[in-house]
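re: ur question from yesterday

yeah so i grabbed the chain u mentioned. its 325 aa long if i counted rite. heres the sequnce exactly as i have it in my notes:
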Amino acid sequence: MKKILVTVSIVIIVISLVAIQPSLQPSLPPSNGTAQPTPSNTPQTTPQSTIQPTPQNTPQSTPASAPYSTPQNTPNPTQQPNLTPSNRTIQEAIGNATSYLDTLTEPYAMLMLNVIYRRFGINEFADSQQIYDQALASSSGANASLLRVFRRITSYENTLQAGDMTAVTADTDKITVPALYCDQFGLEEEYPELLAQATDRKGYMLTHVLLATIWMQENNYQPHLSSGFLEGICQDTDDLIGNDPVVTDLELEAAAFLYLAGKGSMVDSVFIQKVVEAQNVDGGWCDPYVSLDSNWHSSVLALLLLLHVQNPAGAYPSMLAQPMQ
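ran it thru and got these C-alpha cells back, copy pasting raw so excuse formatting
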C-alpha cells in the first residue's frame, strides 16, 4: 500500500510540474517570421531660439499705391534670407538682379525698369514700355486710369482720359501725382502744406515727398517751398536707413531715392554692402517684415541703387521721359 501511495504522489508531483512549467517561461513576442523592432529613444526636435533683430526703423503701414509703395504687415522679421555669399561683388549682384527682373511682367515694375533702361542702358529692359502698354490695353476701369496716370514717367506725351485723376486715391499718390503733372496743371495753393504734413508722417510718406521734389525739379517747376526744404527732406530720408542687419523695403526706397535726388553720398557704404549680401538666391530682394520671398518692388529699388553706386556720374538722364526732339 505504501508503495502505491508513494507512486501516486510522485505522479501527482510530476503532473503539477508539467502544468506549472509554461507559466515560468519569459513572455515572448508572437512569432510571425518577422523580427520585431526594438524601441529606441528618439530625440525630440526642440526649436532653436532665434535672436530677433531689432530694427532701427519699423516700416510704416501704407495703403497700396502705384508704383512705388507696397503694403507692410506687422513687423516680425526672422533673419535676412540670404547672407551667405558675402564675397559677391556689386557687379555680380546687378547681373543676378537683371536676370530676376527680366522674367517679370508686373506693369508698375516696368515703369522703373524703363527708367533704368534710359539711365543705364540695360538692354534687357528695352521692352519695358511695350510690356507696360500691353498691361494698360488689357486693363479697364480705375486700374486702367491709374496705369494711364503713371505712364507719364515713360512718355512725356502721355494723354489722360476724363476721370483718370479720380483713380488717384492713395495718400502717397496724392503727393507724387501733382508733381508728375505740375508743368501741365500747376499745383494747388495748399500743396506745400500737404508736403510738410506728409514729411511729418515719416516712412513711405517721407520718401514720396522726396520723389515729388525730384519730379518737380525735372519738370522745371519751382514751388513755393521753405529755404532748405530739400536738404531737410534728404536728411530725414537718410535717417530712415538704420544700422541693424536687416535690409527693409523702406530702407531700399530711401537709399534709391537719395541717389535719384543726386544725394547718394549720404548713403553709408556699409549699407550698400548689406544690400549686396541680402540678395536672395533667385537674384531678387525681399522685405523680411513681409515675406522672405523676393518681390518686384524691393528688387527694382535695390537694382536702381546698385546701378548708381556702380556707375557714378556727375549727372544722369532724367527720371521722367523728356519731350521728343
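noticed a couple things. The CA atoms of residues 48 and 78 lie 12 Å apart. also The longest strand covers residues 291-295.
anyway ttyl
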